[in-house]
Amino acid sequence: MSFNQFTNLDFNDLRSQIKEYLRANSNFTDFDFEGSNFSVLIDTLAYNSYITAYNTSMAVNESFIDSATLRENVVSLARNIGYVPRSTKSATADITFTVDLSGFDARSVKLRKGVVALGGAENSNYIFSIPDDITVTPDTNGIAAFSGIKIYEGNLLKKTFVVDDSQPDAKYLLPNRNIDTSTIRVSVTGTATEEYSPYSNIFNVSPTTRLFLTQEIDDERYQILFGDNILGKKPENGSTIEVTYLVSNGAAADGARNFTFSGALTYSKAGNEYKVSTGISAITTLQAAENGDDIESIDSIKYLAPRVYASQYRAVTANDYASLIPFLYPNIDSVSAYGGEELDPPQYGKVFITVKPKNGEFLSDVAKDSIKNDLKQYTIAGIKQEFLDLKYLYVEYDSTVSYDPSFISSSDDLYSRIVKSIENYSRSSDINSFGGRLKYSKLLSQIDQVDRAITSNITKLIMRRNMVPAYNALANYELCYANQFHADLEGFNIRSTGFTLDGVEGTVYLTDLPDPGGKTGVVQFFTLVDGVVKYVNEDVGKIDYIKGEIIIYPVTITSTVLENRIEIEVTPESNDIIAKENLYIVLDTTGKSVLTLKEDLISSGSNRSGVSYNPPSSFISNTKYTR
């Protein structure tokens, strides 16, 4: 009688397996299991096998970073390959205020670490603190200016430990969650007080180097680790460890401004400390709170940990940059990095980086410089990093949805649900990343699956880029869509909003006229006089339909119909649209996208013969001259 392996997670299947196993024994060949009390034992065995199989499956799953579901296990597995998950990140703001010390005999004034101000964001107030003291010397008029100081959202807390070598497994655990680990400060007081620095890399670490490490443990809390007198100095027995840190609300405090001073100011005189409570000006906000972030998610750890490990913490290939930058700068939604050798013409020795921030449309120059500085310890000589602002490629739809009214109570409700479904797809991972792709079949499926009342949909797509003109200056322009254009030889494949030109009367628009081969063409300017096209200039640029590129020769634009932009739309050759290089796709549900509901007369039974039903066109008419 062979031994069965019970790995099934279905109770009834396990029960049947046990019966078959027993029937293989000649003593039970014709036994009626269901009609005897023996069935209770079989149920017990099946239940036990089910629990064992389930526990085994879960235990094995938790042993691999791809399948683990518990955060503690994911973090532990990431730690094994040297990856430290990002902690909660405090929102930071830049402020300025002054203190009038003319009535005090003070040579300097100190802003004590801890609470500095209260700031409001979205009907909530947040505490902002600093992790270190800041000392300022007053000018000749007795005015001390705290200019451009950076304050961090969160409460500054302190935890004290006593080193006891009699406990070899002693652990220094911080009891709070939502700690911003970048604000952790550690000092050890024994025969003298020594400041310990956070560990960055193993280079130049000696037995006397004062450093500490942090690692996430269970329940999103952190443990402080020290050296062993071989790699890093170990605190002496009996010494006192003081750890201060900020507990933050993460991204919730972004946008906080209108700060009210709540800090502690002191000055020293004759060896004594005195408080300053008068002469404090109102706080001026130079930069509202930004760049707060929540603790790194499980999905992000699973994605980044193996990639950062593969890069071995060095930036050589484009993939290394795409892995390291989110690790260094958490306020990132997506990263694109590619080598200059991929360009036409190639630019060797360069890597081009484009970042989509979580908040806002573009990365600030300060953030770019910060990332560049952080990358220096990972890059190799000879490779130059260049940050490019991302370019948005807007995709608009014109969708006509046919439906059977007998299945729904309200067409308005159906309309709202379709729009919501499209919005959900616009936020999906298919689109929201560099290298993302709008998959036409998925978009159609999203619409069709909203309700069984929907019988079909005809959806047309156009691509749009926004051109920002240099007003009243002679300039040339280049717009890259990186997706092939549809080229109708009659022209008017591209359409724009209106603008005015120096020396030309009336509102001007641009269009195209393809060459006979349909691969390239010219850009033209025209005006509309009583609905009739009147060309202003029939060769003001060139267009490459294959590359999806529009180039406009030097021209002076004086104004635009829309504020600070000219919208230029084209019809894609393929409805599967790809975001290449530094392009980022936005499925625009708020612009000129159109959704129309049309009663399906055939499905509803109103017109079974179909004589009165005219389906909408699947093509975009080139008789449309302007956007």
Strand content of the residues, in percent? 35-45%
User: Mind summarizing the main beta sheet?
Assistant: 7 strands, mixed
Output mean pLDDT: 87
Cα gyration radius (Å): 33 Å
Name the strands of the widest sheet in spatial order. Answer: 7-13-9-10-11-12-8
Weakly predicted, low-confidence segments: none
Helix content: 10-25%
Helices, by number, come to 9
What distance lies between the first and last C-alpha atoms, to the nearest angstrom? Answer: 79 Å
Number of strands: 34
How would you classify the helix and strand content by structural class? alpha+beta
Shape: globular
What does this molecule look like?
18% of the residues lie in helices and 37% in strands. With 627 residues, it is of the alpha+beta class. A seven-stranded mixed β-sheet has the order 7-13-9-10-11-12-8. α1 packs across α2, α3 packs parallel to α4 and α7 packs antiparallel against α8. The longest helix is centred in the N-terminal third of the chain and has 24 residues. The model has no long low-confidence stretch (mean pLDDT 87).
